[in-house]
Every structure is written in structure tokens, then in C-alpha cells.
Write a structure and sequence with these properties.
The protein is of the alpha/beta class and about 1550 residues long. The protein contains 56 helices and 46 strands. The strands form five sheets. The chain has a 32-stranded mixed beta sheet.
Length: about 1550
């Protein structure tokens, strides 16, 4: 400040001056300056001034020296008149008269002490000053607490101690009654105050009545306008006076001055704190950096963002500086520090500020720290300048120039925002709030581009304003060395240090709790309090859980033997109210002064200055940690009589760590259910009963209610985060029954995916699993884990499968895991994937794995392991006798290492498969079936036994796919495999072997004893290489199939088991003779397949290929596949000439070779040249051409030259006579010339022959040509036209064939699309069947068809069903029926006939003497059958069903029956003839004497007596009894005389 006075916070002329207190210096000419403090009122201003020592001068005389101008800053001056000042000074003071304070050596010193005057009690004031003078450090600490913005300027150190105390008391007093009363309460609580003095202090100063406002009606003075640590500045943001133009040099000087001011204020702020009474010196100073780990994925991935490589430092300052990668110069540079509650996020943020103030972070010129819990109070939008200068620290002048400098050098500015999770609020209708908007702009570089931003947050849902490239750094707490370091610092130079270390080392539960830095501090405080009064081991027995840790902390901070129950419960009520409303900052109006004093005395509350704008600041209070607030709230819920059981149980819930903040208020009660569960422990009951004033029954009921809620939660199906929370709650209760219920309710597969876990979490889970009997599988996928987390699993014998997948796992994690593995006796599967473990970490695991002989599966996938590390891992295979799988995939090994691994697979007796494909690298093993006793023997004995057994029995599968193997690698591999065991499969696909490498492997195939498969696909094989491969495998007896497709890059060898030794000649002859007695379908099968598909083979390649294949033909029946090549007509013709030289093939596939129709038809000649060919299937359009032999007797051909044996020759002749040959030709245009050529080609084909043709439509000319050629094919046994459209003329052409070709025994035409002709052999009986169903035949076709059928001499059956004959066509057919020589049956069903056809049938029966039976059903069945006999039939039978005769039909029916003298039986079923119509029918039938049977199977409802029926039918016997009911199925037999 300049001039003789200062008005801090005062604005420009006429602005913001009211109520502020400048200080006026009165200079005495005779004596050294002595401060004289006072306040006066001048023109609406209150002036606080200091008068110098002087004589008895008048007030006016003193004020003469004040006349003139008082300057405030650069722009404001106030003119003061001596008369005005004198009048003001002579005005009665609101504090009473001036007083003098005499002390020894200070006679004559004039002290204008308004506080002392206001107290009105010199002795009491003197005692207070004298008391505080004895303990200045305590007073400094309280000044920091009640006035966190106070500057303990070193200039005050030159003052007298009493003067310093008076100045500090003045500052406390002017803050108001709440602050002053809270301070007096602290004095009485913490200092050794005599009882009489304490009573006077509390009665005078500790209540509202004892505090008289020094301002009268204006007592509510505004807070001092200092923005940071007592540094004063005038305000600049109001008003719009033009900024002065300054030169660059002046601007730079202003900026440097501000930066120095910023650093000085930070140094003052982080000056060493003074420990409280009875606390160790390191209580406030201990800082051990927690484990920091940088994430490896961006924010839009599940694991967070990345920036730079992971660096984990062991507590050095370098780890703090490494948080910021200064090499990144473009774009926003944002770091998010993630850590659960108590991990030390806020502490680290302040540590960064302290290190910067000390000059360590020299990469930053300016550093600003903001807390979101305070920024949330801002309701207006801020500019960066307002954020930095109004809410942090303002320059002394020219703010624009300073901000301009910061903007130009933004890359050297660090902004730290603490508690980002506390700002997570839902988006409003106008977007995010003002604070998040400003934060977003800073992160994205919209404002202050280039600055570095760091935010701290608890894990969970982060705001969308964070850029995707933000670096995510996880705080993972303390490991063992860090806990030990913290304890050493905490108990520095104290005798209890060694005892504390021993207690922590011997108690695993407490050690796991100390993994959380906040709990570590609490534990050290408790041990500091407990160790002096307890024997070794007893102290930690009092600290088994987090809840009891806090309980002991409260006891440690309380006066010995006195627990302030009322204050604890009242403070707990404040804490609970804050949790319910999302409030973490409290003002003096929220907490009573005694509670503030209680919290300050017991280190339960902290204070800080809250600034929401220029000139707006006040003191705020918060609990020292959020978890402490939760604990005190839990205490209130459990012990307060205001809370009942029902209200209590509403707070016992499980919070998921997959945080989704959908409420406007932040959820702060993460640990509240845990503390409630901990307080439900029986151990806490005495403590709670004391708090509840000995109301033990109420406390017990509340504890039981909490346990009951946890039991219900334990039986539910929960997600991974809630399982962890439940385990914490259950473990805190220390209830074995509840722990057992929880452990048994956990699922067999327990996954934990994508949420952070701490060592404490795993330790708690282990404690719960100790109560479980069944095994469990734990899967940690994507969970950020602390490096020492596996140590928490030591001794957990229930784990059967353990899997970790996270980039957070490094060497420290592997080392900790290696210590835990040998203690898990039931562990069978270990998975460690996607980590960053190096050789150092793997070395620890390799040493630990042999100590786990029960392991069955181990996975080290995707760990970026080096070649040597992989080789070190496989060395452990012989030491794991039960291992079934070792997964080393995604570790980028070289070819030489791969060959070394192949050698391990060959030599290790338990390995049955090695699979390597690009990133995959897997060992599959078959452990020997040994007893437990054998497995516990020495490893060397196990290895020797296994090698002896495995060398004889095991077979190895080797898959080295896409491994960049070359020819020289194959040579080494062949030499290696020749010394190894039998090979089940060798897969070398996807390498670079080319022709030479493929040839070498093909030649070695017979020597390697491959049992099933050799795959050389995708190795660059050419057409020339195909010939070499064929020649190489020609002598391989075990080859069953070879598939080569150059287009699909396929080269696969399939092998069969080696054949048995050749039998002797006599045994072989007997074997062949026995085949004659077997059915063909029971003959053994054996064949070899050679598939050369899509290889681009042409006619020029065939001769060389056939030579290469010649050696394979004598080894068995050969299936040859040339499909998908380019042979063409030339190749087909050439192949037809070469096929006899290949011997007996089982099949030949020539599909997709571009053959023309002539070439296809020419293949039919092969029937006469190839004895093995029995089936030729051709689909011309789809180019499917397959030549097949018979499926029987293949092994006979494969065993050798059969003609040497008579039995074999006889068998072959049997095959030639009995097995038909077939030609199937489809999708082919069947024109007359083609059919003529086809039949001519088949003329010499040995029979029997089956010809199957199919095309879209066959013309009448083509059908006629085909039928005309039938007599030329005497060996033809079947002609089939399937799915071929035919015309209406085709039935007549086929019917005509019956007379032209006598060998035809059956013609069947269906729907004009399917025609079949069966031919008889000479030995078969005669008889022709003819069927034309669904051929649309009508009346106009009947006479022609009957004429053609009449030419057939032996027509047994005719089927004309499903046509369109109708009544007229049927009448015409019945008229022509005597001319057709049918000896069997005629089917006329489904021809749309009516009663007329039935009546006409009755009328026609006399003209058809060979008809023996006729049946008509006009119902749903629509059947119409006529059965014939070869001779005239004496008796005929007629069955009429559902004919629906009407009364007018009775006479016609009677007439027909009268004429059909040979009709002996008539059956009427459901023909609608009642008894009346039957009586009329019988009366009209005139027949000669003889037996006539009439059967009526109709249900009748008429009431008609038998006598009436007997009157109509002579010769019927009378019934003795009349029936008046429904008559059913009545049979009347009449013998007419």
C-alpha cells in the first residue's frame, strides 16, 4: 500500500467504500511510533487507526497532522479536514473511554485497546492476554483455524509478545460473536485454565450477552476484503475506467510482481503447521506419496484416458512432477486424478501447491488451486480473469496487463480443481452450470488456451465436458513399504515407533486398512494413544475394523476418562443433516459456537475462507474428512434417541460403484452403511450405550435391525460393486453367522468388471470367503487394482479360478501375486491377461508356479512378454504335473523362439498340442493319471516317470499358423519332429514355404507318422509345385485325402491309420470267398481322395498329373476331383483316354470345367471303356459332372490284383450282372439330335442301365425320338423324366409305347412333369401297368386313349385318377371299357363325377362281364375303382358311398339292379336313402330267384316298424318285436322266390 493509509477493498471514487475500515497512521515527532488502535466514524466511513506515542496534545492538534490527502491505490483520494477528524475523535466512542495498560517495563505506553475497553474488565482481559502469551504457538494455530485467511506476517515478530496477542485477539473479536465465543470455548477446553478464570471467561465472553457489538446498529460489519492470506488490494472489476497504456517493460514488471506475490502467498499458506497438544510432531506434516498409475485408454473407452506411458514411482517427488507431460504442446492438456475416498487426492493437490511454492515445479510460473465445494456456491458465470483474481489473488494494479501476460504464457500456468465429483450435477435446460461451463472451456482450450488443468475426483461417472484425450491417473493408496514409511515419519523419534511397526506387521486386517492413506493416519493416531497403556498385541486387537478404528480415534482425541457424549451426538446430527442435503461446507450459523470449539479442539473440524466474489468472503467449516462426517452421522443414527429403528434401516443400503449421478445433489453417504454395520458389532455396544446414556436395550434393538437388513441383502443376486459393498458391511459387523450366510450365497462364478478395487476391498472379500466351503471363481476384468492387492488374497483356499485382466497390473502386482499363489491350495486356473508385466515380474511368478502343483490352467495372454520371458515360462511345464493349458498368446515372439517352443512341445512328455497362430500361442497338455501321493513326490522323479510313459503313448498336435516360417525353418522343424513322438496333426498354414517347403513336408509326411492331418495351406504353392507334391505323396500308404486348391490357397493332407500287415495267400483267398456270402451293403470300405480343385489346370497339365497320380492308384480306390479347373472339351477328351491307365477309380469329379454339351454327352462312352464306372451324374447348366463307381467292394480292389483269385473273378462277374449303371442328365437342352446321339452312345453300354433325364420342357418331337430309340437299348431297365414339362400329347405317346416296345412293363406319368418307364427282363412275368394321373384328360381324350390301350395285350392296371373326365368323360370311358383288355384294376378317382356316374356304372355293369367289383365314394375321398378278372365273373359286388341319391334316382337304381343279374351284393353307405326309399327300391327291383344281399350302413332317424318293410319284401321273416328307436347298420338279406 502506498501513502499514509490504506483502504483495502475500497473501490473507485463514490463506489464500494461504505462500511470498510482503513488504517490511519498518526506520526509523533518526539517518540518512536507506538501503535494506537481505534475506530472512528467520518462521513459514513469507519476508520481504524493507530496513534503514535505523544504528549498531552489535543485531539485537534493531533488531527492537524492528518490534514491533507489520504491516497488509496492510484485512482482514489479522500480529502480530510482536521476539524472533521477532531469532531469525530471527540465523539463518544462506542467502546467506552480510553484506557492505559501498565506492565513492568512498559510504563507510559499508551494503548488504545477497544477490545479491552469493550470487555470492561481490566483484570479479566489482562489474565486472558497473559495466558495466551505463554503459548503463542497454540494461538497461532487457532488463528489459522478461525481465520484461515490470516497472514501471520513475520513483521509482527518484532513486536512485544503481548502486543502480538492483543493484535490477534483484535482480529478474532472483529469477526463476530460466533467466532469469538467459539475461540473462548477452545481456550477453556484445550489450555490449562484455572477454574475461577474459566468460569469468568465462559460467563463473560462465552455467551451472546457477554458480546457487545462494537458497531451498534451497524454491527454486522462486512468481512475484510482481503482475497488471499491477508494480502490487500483495491478492487478493479467494477466500473469501466479506461486502462492506461503501459509499455511492455512495465507490463512485464507488473506480471513478475504478481507472480512473486502469488508464490509468496502460497509459501505463507503452507508454512509448517503447529501440532496440537499431545499430538506427535509429524501429525500434521507426514506426507508419503501414494501409488500413482496412469490409465492406458482414452475417455471414450471403458478404462479411461491415456497420455504418455505408465510410470509408477515409489514415493519420490519425481512421481509428482511426472503427472504433467510437458512435451505435449498442442491442444488442451488435462489430467484427471481418480481415487476413492481417503486416498489423498486433496492432500496431493495441496502438496503440488507447496512444492511449486518451494520452487520444485519450475515448469509452471503460476499455479492456482480451486475447490469445487466452494465453486459450487457461485451462481453467476465467471470469466477467467474473475476466477483468478476475484476468487484467488488479485494483482495490486493493472489486472488486464497481468492477465494478458498469463494468457500469453498459458502453457506455464497450472489450474488445479479439487473435487470434480462434487460438481457433477445434471444438465439443466440451459446446459451445465456456470462453474462446469468455465471448467469445460478451460479443458478444451476455449479459454486460456494452452494452460494445464488438473482435476481430482472420486471414480464414477465423469462429466462430458472432459476432453477425450484427458490423462486419467489413478491413486491406489499405500502398499506395505509406504505404510511402513508413513509410520516411521509419524512416530519419528518416539519410543513407540518400533512397537507400532510390530503391531502393523503382525495384524493383517489392520495392515489392509492402512492401504487407505486416511485410515493409515487414523490408525497411527490410535496406536499413538493406545500403545503406552497396553501390552504388545492388545492395541491392534482394539482396531479390527474401520468403524472401530474411528471409534478409537474419537476416544483418543477426547479428554482422558471423559467422553463428550452430548457434543458428539450434536455434531453427528450436523453431519447427518449435511449428508442428507449434500452439504459439506458449514457456516457459523449452521453450527453453534460450543460445537465449533468442540470440533476445533478435537481436530474434527477444519476452517477455510470462502470467497464467492469481490468483497464477499466468510469463514466456512467442514469435517476433516468426508468419511469422518459419515462416521459421526452413523453415531447419531445408532445412539441418538431421536432416531428409531425404521428410520435407521432406511440408511442401510448398498451403493453401486458404477456411479450414475442422476440427482442434482451429490450422494455423499458412500461409507455410511459400512459404519452403521460396524456399529452393529457387539464390540461397539458399550461405546454406543455410553453415548446413548446407558440405553442399552435401544442400542441392541438398532444393532439387530441393521444385521437383519444385511441378512436380506446377502441372499439377493447382486452386481460386483454391490457384492464388495456387502462384504465390507458384513465384515464390519464381525458376525460369523452373517459372514457364513453371505459367503455361501455368493455365486460360483463371481465377476468384477470395470470398477476400481483396493487392497482393502480384496482383504474384506478374503475375510468373507473364509466362511465358505465350496470353491469359487473370481474374475477381475478391467478393474483398476493397486499393485499390492494380491497380498490380500493370501491364504484364501476357496479360490479355484483366479483371473486378472487389466493394464494396471505391473511388476509390483506380479510380485505380490507370487506371494499369494502358493497359499491358495485349491487354485486350478490362473489368468493374468492384458497387463504390463515385464521380465522382473514374470521371474517372481515363475518361481511361485512350481509351488502350485494343483494348477490346471495358466494364462499370460496379452502381456507384451519378450522372447526370453516366454522361454522362461515354458521351463516350468515339467514342474506342473496337472497342468492342462498354458496360454501365452498376444506376446509377439520371433520365429527362432517359436522353434524353441516347438522343441519344448516335442520333448515335454505331457504336451499334446502347441498352437501358434499370429497372436495365439497355446500349449495343451495331457497330465498323467496319477494318485495324489505320486504327485507329491520329487519333481525330478515325476518328470522321469512321465517321460517314460509319454514317449510310448502320447501323440502331438503342432499348429504353427501364420508364423512366417520359411524353407530353412521347415528343414529344422522336420529334423526336430523326426525325433519326437507320434504326430496327430501338423498345421503349417499361412507361412512362406512355397513349392520347395511344401515338397519337403510332403516327402517327410510318411516318416513323421502323422495320424490325421498335415495342413500346408496358404504357403505360395504353384501349379508346378502341385506335381511335386503329388509325386512326393505317391508312396505314402497312410494318405487318405489330399486337397489342393490354389485359388483358395488350400493344401491339406488327411491320413488314416496305418494298415495291418498283409495276410497270407490262403487267408486272403478265404477272405475273398467269404465276401460272396455277404450283402453288398456290408462290404468293408477303403479309399483315397485326391482333390485338385480350382488350381487352373488345363489340358496340357493332365498327362503329367496322371503320371504323378499313377503311383497312388495301386494303393486303393481313388476319388479324383478336378472340379473348378479349365480343362474344357480338349481336356475332357484327353482325360477320357488317360483314365484307363489310372486303374480303378472310385469317383471322378469334372465339375466347373467349361465342358460343352457334346463333350458332356461324349462322357457316356466311358460306360463301355471303364469297368469301374457305374454312375454318371451331369447337371449341364451348373456344370456338375461326377463319375462314380459302385460303393461296394472297394477294399477288394485296394488289396491288390484280384483276377489272380477265382473267388474274386466270380465276385466281379456277379457285380457286373447285378449292379445297374445309371446316367443322370439334368439342366440340359434335350433336342432330338442330342437324344439320338445319347442313345447311340449308350447302345454298347453294359447293362442293366438306368437313364434319368431332366430339363425344363421336353417337346413332343424329342419325346417321340426318345421313345423310338428305346428298342435299341435292350439293357435299359429304367427311363425317368423328372421335373420335365410335357405336353398333353405325351400320355398318348407313352400309351403307344406299350405296343411298340414290348419290354415296357410300367408307364407312370404324373402331372405332365414326371414320367417313369420301367422295363422288364426276359425272366420276369408279363403284365403292364399304365398310369396317367393329373394329366388334364377330359372326355375328348377318352376314345383315343382307349384305342391305344386296347393294343396292349396284357394290361393289368390303369390309373386315370385326378384328371378332368367328369360325368360325360366317365360315361364315354365306361362305354369303351369292354374294348380295353384290363385284367387288374381301373382307378378313376378324383375326376369330378356325380350321382350320374354312379347310376351309369350300375347301368353299365351288365355289359362288362369281367368286372368283379366296383366301388364309388362321392364324399371327401372321391374314389372310383373298378376291379376286373381275367374271366367272366359270376358274382359282382357294388359299393356306393355318400352318393346322396334323391327320390327320383330310386327308379333308375332299381332298373339297373334289375338288369345286373350277376350282381349279388349291394352296399349303400350314407346315400341319403331312408326306409321309405329302401322299401320302394326293393319293391321295384325285379330279379329272378337267387341270393341278393343289400346292406345299408346309414343312420336312420325315422320311426318305421318292420312289418311295413316286410310288406315290401316277400320272403323276409317277421321280427318278433317292434323297434321304435334309431336303426343303425341294418342288414337285410332277401331270398326272392
Amino acid at each position: 500500500m502506498q501513502g499514509c493509509g490504506e483502504v483495502p477493498g475500497c473501490g473507485r471514487s463514490g463506489e464500494r467504500g461504505l462500511g470498510l475500515a482503513p488504517r490511519i497512521h498518526v506520526i509523533s515527532r518526539q517518540q518512536p511510533p507506538v501503535p494506537l488502535t481505534g475506530r472512528t466514524d467520518l462521513g459514513g466511513f469507519y476508520f481504524q487507526f493507530r496513534a503514535e506515542r505523544g504528549g498531552a496534545r489535543s485531539a485537534e492538534g493531533e488531527c492537524q497532522e492528518l490534514c491533507g490527502s489520504l491516497h488509496y491505490g492510484n485512482n482514489l483520494s479522500i480529502q480530510l479536514k482536521a476539524q472533521d477528524i477532531a469532531q469525530t475523535l471527540m465523539r463518544p466512542s462506542p467502546w467506552g473511554p480510553w484506557s492505559t495498560y501498565h506492565e513492568r517495563g512498559d510504563q507510559g505506553r499508551l494503548l488504545m485497546d477497544p477490545v479491552g475497553l469493550q470487555l470492561g474488565n481490566k483484570n479479566l482481559w489482562s489474565c486472558l492476554v497473559r495466558l495466551l502469551t505463554k503459548d503463542p504457538e497454540w494461538l497461532n494455530a487457532k488463528m489459522k483455524f478461525f481465520l484461515p485467511n490470516t497472514d501471520l506476517d513475520s513483521r509482527n515478530e518484532t513486536l512485544d509478545p503481548e502486543q502480538r496477542v492483543i493484535l490477534q485477539l483484535n482480529k478474532l473479536h472483529v469477526q463476530g460473536s460466533d467466532t469469538w465465543q467459539s475461540f473462548i470455548h477452545c481456550v477453556c477446553m484445550q489450555l490449562e485454565v484455572p477454574l475461577d478464570l474459566e468460569v469468568l471467561l465462559l460467563s463473560t465472553f462465552g455467551c451472546d450477552d457477554g458480546f457487545t457489538s462494537q458497531l451498534g446498529a451497524e454491527g454486522k460489519r462486512q468481512p475484510e476484503s482481503q482475497l488471499h492470506h491477508g494480502l490487500k488490494r483495491p478492487h478493479q472489476s467494477c466500473g469501466s475506467s479506461p486502462r492506461r497504456k503501459q509499455c511492455k517493460k512495465q507490463q512485464l514488471e507488473l506480471a513478475k510482481k504478481y507472480l512473486q506475490l502469488l508464490r509468496t502467498s502460497a509459501q505463507q499458506r503452507y508454512r509448517s503447521r503447529i501440532p496440537g497438544s499431545g499430538q506427535p510432531h509429524a501429525f500434521h506434516q507426514v506426507y508419503v506419496p501414494p501409488i500413482l498409475r496412469r490409465a492406458t485408454a482414452s475417455l471414450d473407452t471403458p478404462e479411461g484416458a491415456t497420455m504418455g506411458d505408465l510410470k509408477v514411482e515409489d514415493g519420490t517427488d519425481v512421481s509428482i512432477s511426472d503427472l504433467f507431460n510437458t512435451r505435449v504442446n498442442k491442444g488442451p492438456r488435462v489430467t484427471v486424478l481418480l481415487g476413492k475416498a481417503g486416498m489423498g487426492k486433496t492432500t496431493l493437490a495441496h502438496r503440488l501447491c507447496q512444492k511449486w511454492a518451494e520452487g520444485h515445479l519450475d515448469c509452471f510460473q503460476a499455479l492456482f488451486l480451486f475447490e469445487f465445494r466452494q465453486l459450487n456456491l457461485i451462481t453467476r458465470f465467471l470469466t477467467p480473469s474473475e476466477l483468478l483474481f476475484d476468487l484467488y489473488l488479485s494483482p495490486e494494479s493493472d489486472h488486464d496487463a497481468v492477465f494478458q501476460y498469463l494468457e500469453k504464457n498459458a502453457d506455464q500456468v497450472l489450474l488445479i480443481f479439487d473435487g470434480l465429483d462434487e460438481a457433477l450435477q445434471p444438465m439443466g435446460p440451459d446446459g451445465p452450470g456456470p462453474v462446469l461451463t468455465l471448467f469445460s472451456d478451460l479443458c478444451h482450450g476455449t479459454l486460456l488456451p494452452g494452460c494445464r488443468v488438473m482435476a481430482t475426483s472420486r471414480p464414477g461417472k465423469l462429466p462430458a465436458c472432459l476432453p477425450a484425450e484427458a490423462a486419467m491417473v489413478h491413486m491406489l493408496g499405500f502398499d506395505g513399504p509406504r505404510v511402513e514409511e508413513y509410520v516411521n515419519h509419524f512416530f519419528s523419534a518416539q519410543p513407540s515407533r518400533e512397537g507400532a511397526l510390530v503391531e502393523l506387521q503382525t495384524n493383517g486386517r489392520l495392515r489392509s486398512l492402512c492401504a487407505v492413506p486416511a485410515l493409515c493416519q487414523v490408525a497411527c493416531l490410535c496406536l499413538h494413544h493406545l500403545l503406552p497403556d497396553h501390552a504388545p498385541g492388545q492395541s491392534v486387537a482394539l482396531l479390527p475394523t474401520r468403524t472401530q478404528l474411528y471409534m478409537q480415534m474419537v476416544l483418543a482425541l477426547s479428554p482422558p476418562g471423559h467422553l463428550p457424549t452430548t457434543s458428539l451426538l450434536d455434531l453427528g446430527e450436523v453431519a447427518l443433516r449435511g449428508l442428507e442435503t449434500g452439504k459439506v461446507i458449514f457456516y457459523a450459523k449452521d453450527i453453534t459456537p460450543p460445537l465449533i470449539a468442540f470440533g476445533a479442539t478435537h481436530s474434527l473440524l477444519t476452517s477455510f475462507c470462502i470467497r464467492t466474489g469481490p468483497g464477499h468472503q466468510q469463514t466456512g467449516y467442514a469435517f476433516t474428512h468426508l468419511s469422518l462426517q459419515e462416521f459421526l452421522a452413523a453415531l447419531h443414527l445408532m445412539a441418538s434417541p431421536k432416531v428409531n429403528k425404521d428410520t435407521l434401516t432406511q440408511y442401510v443400503t448398498l451403493h453401486s460403484r458404477w456411479v450414475q449421478r442422476t440427482k442434482a445433489r451429490l450422494c455423499l453417504s458412500d461409507h455410511l452403511p459400512t459404519f452403521l454395520a460396524g456399529l452393529a458389532s457387539c464390540t461397539c455396544r458399550p461405546f454406543l450405550s455410553h453415548l446413548a446414556q446407558d440405553n442399552e436395550d435401544c442400542v441392541g434393538a438398532k444393532q439387530a435391525a441393521v444385521v437383519q437388513v444385511l441378512k436380506k441383502l446377502a441372499t439377493r443376486k447382486l452386481t460386483g460393486p454391490k457384492v464388495v459393498e456387502l462384504c465390507h458391511c458384513v465384515d464390519e459387523t464381525q458376525e460369523p453367522e452373517l459372514a457364513s450366510l453371505t459367503a455361501q450365497s455368493l455365486p460360483y462364478q463371481l465377476p468384477f468388471h470395470n470398477f476400481p478395487l483396493t487392497c482393502t476391498d480384496l482383504a474384506t472379500l478374503t475375510n468373507i470367503l473364509e466362511h465358505r466351503e465350496a470353491p469359487i471363481h473370481l474374475d477381475f476384468d478391467g478393474c483398476p487394482l493397486e499393485p499390492h492387492c494380491p497380498e490380500a488374497l493370501v491364504g484364501c483356499g476357496q479360490i479355484e479360478n483366479l483371473s486378472f485382466k487389466s493394464r494396471k497390473c505391473g511388476d509390483a502386482f506380479a510380485e505380490a501375486l507370487s506371494k499369494s499363489l502358493p497359499t491358495m491350495g485349491r487354485l486350478q486356473m490362473l489368468g493374468l491377461a492384458g497387463s504390463k508385466i515385464t521380465a522382473r515380474g514374470i521371474s517372481h511368478l515363475v518361481k511361485a508356479l512350481p509351488l502350485c502343483p494343483q494348477l490346471e490352467e495358466v494364462s499370460f495372454r496379452d502381456n507384451q512378454l519378450s522372447d526370453q520371458v516366454v522361454l522362461n515360462i515354458v521351463e516350468v511345464l515339467p514342474h506342473l504335473p496337472r497342468l492342462r493349458k498354458l496360454d501365452l498368446s498376444s506376446n509377439s515372439i520371433c520365429v527362432s523362439t517359436l522353434l524353441c517352443l516347438a522343441r519344448v512341445a516335442v520333448t515335454c512328455p505331457t504336451v499334446r498340442m502347441l498352437q501358434a497362430r499370429e497372436a495365439d500361442l497355446i500349449f495343451l497338455l495331457s497330465p498323467p493319471t496319477e494318485t495324489t501321493a505320486e504327485l507329491q513326490r520329487a519333481p525330478d522323479l515325476q518328470e522321469s516317470d512321465g517321460q517314460r510313459k509319454g514317449a510310448q503313448s502320447r501323440s502331438l498336435t503342432l499348429r504353427l499358423q501364420k508364423c512366417q516360417l520359411q524353407v530353412h525353418d521347415v528343414e529344422a522343424l522336420i529334423a526336430l519332429l523326426q525325433e519326437g513322438p507320434h504326430l496327430e496333426e501338423v498345421d503349417l498354414s499361412g507361412n512362406q514355404l512355397e513349392d520347395e517347403g511344401c515338397r519337403l513336408m510332403a516327402e517327410a509326411a510318411s516318416q513323421l507318422h502323422i495320424a490325421r492331418k498335415l495342413d500346408l495351406s496358404d504357403n505360395g504353392l504353384s501349379v508346378a509345385g502341385v506335381h511335386c507334391v503329388l509325386r512326393a505323396v505317391s508312396a505314402c500308404w497312410t494318405l487318405a485325402e489330399l486337397h489342393i486348391s490354389l485359388q483358395h490357397k488350400t493344401v491339406v493332407f488327411m491320413f488314416a491309420q496305418e494298415p495291418e500287415e498283409q495276410k497270407g495267400p490262403q487267408e486272403r483267398t478265404a477272405f475273398l470267398d467269404s465276401l460272396m456270402l455277404q450283402m453288398p451293403s456290408k462290404l468293408p470300405l477303403s479309399s483315397r481322395r485326391m482333390r485338385l480343385t480350382h488350381c487352373g489346370l488345363q489340358a496340357k497339365h493332365l498327362e503329367q498329373l496322371c503320371k504323378a497320380l499313377g503311383g497312388s492308384c495301386h494303393l486303393g480306390h481313388l476319388h479324383l476331383d478336378f472340379s473348378g479347373n479349365a480343362l474344357g472339351d480338349e481336356g475332357a477328351a484327353q482325360l477320357a483316354q488317360l483314365l484307363p491307365g489310372l486303374g480303378a477309380l472310385q469317383s471322378l469329379n469334372l465339375s466347373e470345367n467349361g465342358l460343352s454339351l457334346d463333350a458332356v454327352l461324349g462322357l457316356a462312352q466311358c460306360f463301355s471303356t471303364l469297368q469301374w464306372l457305374f454312375h454318371l451324374d451331369i447337371s449341364f447348366e451348373s456344370q456338375h459332372i461326377l463319375l462314380r463307381g459302385d460303393k461296394t467292394g472297394r477294399d477288394i480292389w485296394a488289396t491288390g490284383s484280384l483276377p489272380d483269385f477265382p473267388a474274386a473273378a466270380e465276385f466281379l462277374g456277379f457285380r457286373q450282372r447285378c449292379i445297374p449303371r445309371s446316367l443322370c442328365l439334368s439342366e440340359c437342352p434335350l433336342e432330338p439330335p442330342s437324344l439320338t446321339r445319347l442313345c447311340a452312345t449308350l447302345k454298347d453300354c453294359p447293362g442293366p442301365l438306368e437313364l434319368q433325364l431332366s430339363c425344363e420342357f421336353l417337346s413332343d418331337q424329342s419325346l417321340e425320338t426318345l421313345l423310338d430309340c428305346l428298342p435299341q437299348l435292350p439293357q435299359l431297365s429304367l427311363l425317368q423324366l423328372s421335373q420335365t414339362g410335357l405336353s398333353l400329347k405325351s400320355p398318348f405317346l407313352l400309351a403307344n409305347t406299350l405296343s411298340l416296345c414290348p419290354r415296357v412293363k410300367k408307364v407312370d406319368l404324373r402331372s405332365l412333369h414326371h414320367a417313369t418307364l420301367h422295363f422288364r427282363s426276359n425272366e420276369e412275368e408279363e403284365g403292364v401297368c399304365c398310369g396317367f394321373t393329373g394329366c388334364s384328360l377330359s372326355q375328348e381324350h377318352v376314345e383315343s386313349l382307349c384305342w391305344l390301350l386296347s393294343k396292349c395285350k396284357d394290361l393289368s392296371q390303369v390309373d386315370l385318377s385326378a384328371n378332368l373326365l367328369g360325368d360325360s368323360g366317365l360315361r364315354c370311358l365306361l362305354e369303351c371299357l369292354p374294348q380295353v383288355p384290363i385284367s387288374g384294376s381301373l382307378d378313376l378317382s378324383h375326376n369330378s363325377v356325380s350321382q350320374e356316374s354312379a347310376l351309369y356304372l350300375v347301368e353299365t355293369l351288365p355289359s362288362c362281364p369281367r368286372v368283379r367289383e366296383a366301388s364309388v365314394n362321392l364324399g371327401s375321398e372321391q374314389s372310383f375303382w373298378i376291379h376286373f378278372s381275367r374271366e367272366d365273373q359270376a358274382g359282382k359286388t357294388l359299393r356306393l358311398s355318400e352318393c346322396s341319391f334323391r327320390p327320383e334316382h330310386v327308379s333308375r337304381l332299381a332298373t339297373g339292379l334289375s338288369q345286373s343279374l350277376q350282381l349279388t351284393e349291394l352296399t349303400l353307405t350314407q346315400c341319403c336313402l331312408g326306409w321309405k326309399q329302401l322299401a320302394i327300391l326293393l319293391s321295384l327291383v325285379g330279379r329272378p330267384a337267387g341270393l341278393f344281399s343289400l346292406r345299408d350302413s346309414t343312420r336312420h332317424t325315422e320311426k318305421l316298424s318292420f312289418p311295413r318293410l316286410e310288406a315290401c319284401a316277400l320272403g323276409f321273416k317277421k321280427r318278433k318285436k317292434e323297434r321304435k328307436k334309431v336303426l343303425e347298420d341294418t342288414e337285410l338279406r332277401t331270398k326272392i322266390n
